[in-house]
Structure formats: structure tokens, C-alpha cells
Amino acid sequence: MPPTDSTAVAGQPAIRFENVVKKFGDHTVLDDLNFDVQRGERVTLIGPSGSGKTTILRLVMTLEHLTGGYMFVDGEPLTHMEVNGRRVERRSKDVARTTQKIGMVFQQFNLFPNMSVLENITEAPVHVLGRSQDQARARGLELLDQVGLADKADEHPTRLSGGQQQRVAIARALAMDPEILLLDEVTSALDPELVGEVLGVLRDVAKSTDITMLIVTHEMQFAQDVSHRVLMFDGGSIVEEASPDVMFTAPENERTRAFLQAVL
């Protein structure tokens, strides 16, 4: 039975998908999906395009509307809850409070071109978290140093390379101090020579923090390096899950073997 109040439940996973269904019209993208991501765990979703991986991230970020089932963050219902045996939507302000725990880095950088790099990073902490300009600026400069862009604080995004813009986007997500970080094919829009610099930053984040990560990527070496667990998706369902060592060396499922043979 799903929790019926908005109080986080101790000992619960960071993210839980319970009988999740997502449809676009008559097309079912996710059908009765069930899996957990534990606190501090880094889980990577792999599989062919169109298998529902990005839809999962967009549902957690509430960028897509859940058709059926429930999602939980720290044991707290995300968008829907059960009241007197009925599935009902949570109030938007309660959803917004829960989603403050979640950050997302997209395929496209989505930076504000009219703002400096530092302003892009400090905008949300000031206006959403209520931090002072000085606090936000200090944290922003610290994060820019962390992603190797301390000298670009006053530049505008249009003057940066794609790899630099994506590193700014990572810093912007981290500036909100999220408990959960969603990564959606963060290198897919980059020229091949720029991929390494972005993945290097994310490897450092994985090693130096305990942020829970849910990752969608076609970069299999990156998945192998940073993941605690890898889930293979096909047709909106999990066909196999394993540690990266097992998934990339001795997968059991025939569909997994065929996919990895094609991409590796």
C-alpha cells in the first residue's frame, strides 16, 4: 500500500517506481515498471533509443505526467498518493517541495544566453532557495573551480565551447545542492573530442560526493566506471540488471548481449 501522507519514510530508497505506467496517446512507453534506487547509489540505464530511458528521468523531474502507478522520493509520494483507496494527485506546492531535492543535466545545455556563466549558476539558488547573492556567488565560484572553469565566470555561454557549456550546466545543477542528480545523455550533443572533459567532471562528482545518480548514457565505459548497478531496458521494461562488471562482461539476457555487441 503506498504511503498516504507527505512525510518522508526513514530507510526508504531515494527513488522508487511502483507499477509505473506512461502512455503517449495509445502508445505505452512504460508498462508496470518497478525498481528502486538506493540513497547514494549510482544507477545507469542502458538500452536502444526509444526504450523509455529518458522518459523515466522526465517523470522523476515531473516534466512528463504519470499515467498510472506511483513514484516516491525518500519514501514521499512524488506526484500521486493514495487517499481512501483512491489514487489522487498531490498539491503542486508539495510536488515542488519534493522536486527541490532533484537536479537534472539535459542533453542540451539550456543556459540563459543573456546571463553570464556565474549568473546562470546563481539564479536558482537566490530565487528558489532564498540564498543571499554573496552566498550564491561564493558557491558558484567554488563549483566553477570544481568543473575547471574558474576563469569563465563573467563570460556569456555563447562564447564557450559545447563541452564548457555542459560543464556550466553541471555546476548549475550542483548549485541547488540536490540529493538526487539525473543525467540524460549529457554528452550526446557534443563533438567527440569534447566528451572526455564532461565525463571527467562527472567522474569527479561521483567520487567526491554521495549524491544519488540516475544516469542515461550510451557511453558504456563511463557507465562501467561510475555505476553501482546497470539496468538494461528494452520496450519500456527492464530485461536485465547487474553490477557493471557482470553486465559488461557476462550479461545473461540475449537482448542485452546483442545490444552491447552493437555499441561496444
From TrEMBL:
| Alphabetical list of SUPFAM superfamilies matching this protein | P-loop containing nucleoside triphosphate hydrolases
The keyword Hydrolase belongs to this UniProt entry's keyword annotation = yes
Looking at the record, the residues that make up the ABC transporter domain are 15-260
Write down a Pfam family by its short name: ABC_tran
Q: Which UniProt keywords apply?
A: Amino-acid transport, ATP-binding, Cell membrane, Hydrolase, Membrane, Nucleotide-binding, Transport
Q: Which GO terms describe its molecular function?
A: ABC-type amino acid transporter activity; ATP binding; ATP hydrolysis activity
Q: What is this protein called?
A: Glutamine transport ATP-binding protein GlnQ
What gene name does this entry carry?
Answer: glnQ_2
